[in-house]
Design brief:
Length: 204
């Protein structure tokens, strides 16, 4: 399988990643990646950039070294009401937004609550996809979430980094893929690269 678009990447601005945007674009171009989404972590995750960073993304060129750069964010789900950590006035000016659970921002709860908040997130007009929903810490009703994504015309991410960063994710991801196929839900493939050499990597 040839990956030409990577929908989940992080620059040094995320605080625990290691490449600049220029390094990311250079390496992506060398390996034939036509486009990547720059989805640095939103402010609630320790070490992440201030909201002004996301407001200023407009100065990033739309293309570097022949590779398109989509300006986005990985939002943190903050609570079970579905609040996230960038205001709408910032989100409306970004090209792409994904949202995810991180246990340093929200504590795991019940399947019902995990599922319910993802349904709220999917109804948010400024959010395009769910990131790494196979996280075993946050078990969900897969069919219900996928059906909601279809209804809201949103995508579900299959995250290449999940088996490493979130042990036990593989079966959940396979079950999510099967449900997406059954219900006709769009998927996106994200490397979750935290260094330029991993952009476009998808070995799942």
């Amino acid at each position: 399988m040839t990956i030409e678009v990577d929908t989940h990447t992080h620059s040094i601005a995320s605080g625990h990643a290691f490449s600049t945007i220029i390094e990311m674009a250079q390496d992506a171009s060398k390996r034939g990646i036509k486009m990547f989404c720059l989805t640095d972590h939103a402010p609630a995750l320790a070490g992440s950039p201030h909201l002004w960073y996301f407001g200023n993304m407009k100065i990033i060129p739309p293309e570097l070294f022949g590779t398109r750069i989509i300006k986005g964010v990985e939002l943190n789900i903050l609570n079970y009401r579905g609040e996230v950590d960038l205001p709408r006035q910032i989100l409306k000016n970004l090209d792409y937004a994904i949202a995810s659970f991180h246990d340093v921002c929200i504590q795991p709860d019940t399947v019902e609550n995990h599922t319910g908040v993802l349904e709220v997130i999917l109804s948010n007009p400024y959010i395009d996809a769910l990131a790494h929903p196979g996280n075993p810490q946050f078990q969900i009703d897969i069919a219900k979430v996928v059906k909601t994504a279809v209804r809201e015309n949103k995508a579900i991410e299959i995250n290449n980094h999940s088996p490493v960063a979130r042990a036990g994710s593989e079966q959940n991801c396979c079950d999510i893929l099967a449900a997406c196929k059954e219900y006709g839900c769009r998927i996106v493939t994200g490397s979750d690269a935290h260094i330029c050499f991993d952009i476009g990597k998808f070995n799942f």
